[in-house]
Amino acid sequence: MLEGKVIGFIGAGNMGEALICGLVQSGRVKKSDIIVSDINKDRLNTLAQTQGIRIAGSNIELMEESSIVIIAVKPWQVDPLLDEIASSSREDQLFISIIAGAATGRFSAKLHPQCGVVRAMPNTPASVLAGATALYAGKNVSSENLQDAVAIFDCAGKAVVAQTEALMDAVTGLSGSGPAYVLLAIEALGDAGVLLGIPRTEAYLLAAQTVYGTAKMLLETGKSPAELKAGVTTPGGTTAAGLRMLEKGGLRSAITDAVEAAAARSRELGNK
Q1: 116-121 and 131-137: which strand pairing?
Q2: Among 102, 147, 199, 265, which lies 20 to 30 A Cα-Cα from 139?
Q3: What is the pTM of this model?
């Protein structure tokens, strides 16, 4: 589906780089069909050397060559960028924004009135082909456009389509910021193992593999978290004792609060 389409990235920060790495590693997109621009020339040169992609001399050059443009700049850079590239946008181009909080209408208002705009919220595991991305199809997005967008993010993990744009802030709080929550949990599990005498390297490996294996089991069995949790929890056993302490410590509420706070911040960024 993506054959013959040049994918341009404006911005090569952490998320842009993660997605580029995912696309390259997937083997489903030619390296020569990925072109990138960024104000950090050293970062661009490093990406070109490590990933084999092309570097654009400017944002305008990238616009001229790309059929799909992924905008991956900082939230405060959006409006100046749109002012710069607006006159170069074409009706046959698809724009995909991966900027937290930035609504599709913000792009449609300045770009070519006929071009399609998709809002996406990927996460950093895209760099190892295990990303989770939600997409929302904004103005002028055809079924082919949406299929292209899904195909891009499927190269680096799993993608779902949100039915309303309002849900994108919630997605930002859940899966966009989620890797940081999971890493904190892995760190805490590993540190607990160290406290109990397990060497640090082995403790972190055990913690990380436990999280990875549990997530894989959940995805592949199709069972609910509650069902799988019950399978681990013997009445009166060790897991039951541990779960009691987690509930007593408010883990469930803390995670909910974290997702809500991140979603609220996403909405704030979108209003700036």
Answers
A1: antiparallel
A2: 265
A3: 0.88
